[in-house]
# Entry
Amino acid sequence: MPMKKMSEFTSIAAPLPENNIDTDVIFPARFLLILSKEGVGKYAFHERRKGAGSDFVLDRPPYDKAEILVTGSNFGTGSSREQAVWTLADLGIRCVIARSFGEIFFSNCYKNGVLPIVLGDDAMPAVEAAANAAEQITVDLPNECLRLANGTEIAFTIEPYRKQALMAGLDEVGMILTEDLAAIEAYESRRKLNTPWVTAGSEQLVLQSGND
# Structure
């Protein structure tokens, strides 16, 4: 599933005012054999969405269309499973706002085009109130701020490299191939000159594989 470029977008925010929501709640362990990113959104918060007519916030209009999730402290703690982010992204969540995150979950967000925003106790009440009222929130990544419907602007911080990657719609590998392609090609050229037997062996393996 390709990552979308992120710049500025506006959406209502779904309120999930709980602390310590772990990755097993977000994506239960019994689904870990699922390795495709597409279609995994149906497993998000599976135990809380059982049966028809689920009253879980992400199933209730208008929050079923939310691209922003507002939650409590230590969101995404526990197992390192990357599927926890996949399932949110597949639901259309592009930004998660919390007081704090599980460290690995936080990192995995950037690998999958989801912006995790950490806000302190001074800023979170206004964002939580906007989410509870189903008001629009604008995420302005270039200017690193949130804009609420009442005109309030709330600044957030993001590392420049991660900001650049989200705006380009690239994961870590994509960023390396984009920024360091010339260096990679130069290295490959030097390697062919300095260790021609390695290159020759690799080419022979490719030829042999093609003939099998």
